[in-house]
Amino acid sequence: MVSMIETLTEYLIIMKKAYRTWGWWSVLAEYDKSCKIKELVVKPKAKLSWQRHEFRSEVWFVRKGTATIYYSDDKEGAKNVFKVIKVEKQTQRISRYQWHCLSNETDKELSIIEIQFGDDCRESDITRKQFPRGDYLFSD
Questions:
Q1: Number of helices and strands (H, E) in the chain?
Q2: Range of the domain at 30
Q3: Which distant-in-sequence residues (6+ apart) come within 8 Å of 111 by Cβ?
Q4: How many CB atoms lie within 10 A of CB 6?
Q5: CATH at 68
Q6: Is the CB of residue 51 less than 8 Å from the CB of residue 101?
Q7: Residue 44: what pLDDT?
Q8: Using an 8 Å Cβ cutoff, are 113 and 37 in contact?
Q9: Per-residue pLDDT tens for 86-117?
């Protein structure tokens, strides 16, 4: 059951931007709990956490700028870390349980349109851990 505070928090987030150290995000549209569309704006030289989601997948559309995306193909998120660069009008799919990190390694602002879909698109569906160190494999 969803608490009153969680419902109010979700409503207020829809009405404004949520600011973070890396930039901000805003909900553009929400369709019950199974689909949400957000804009993420990442400051130059900033990145989000190494994270994964249990109940949702995501598609990222690069609206403006250049995105550097790190992701892993192992369930622990420590081996086989890939790095891919996406430019304006390109997309990247992030599957459920896939460890990933969005980074802006440029001197210009990055804008991503994020489409979340799955069983539950709540903000609380996130697991974070330390970003893996080492060499990264380049991907298409």
A1: 1, 13
A2: 4-138
A3: 39, 40, 41, 42, 62, 63, 64, 65
A4: 13
A5: 2.60.120.10
A6: yes
A7: 98
A8: yes
A9: 999 999 999 999 999 999 999 999 999 999 99
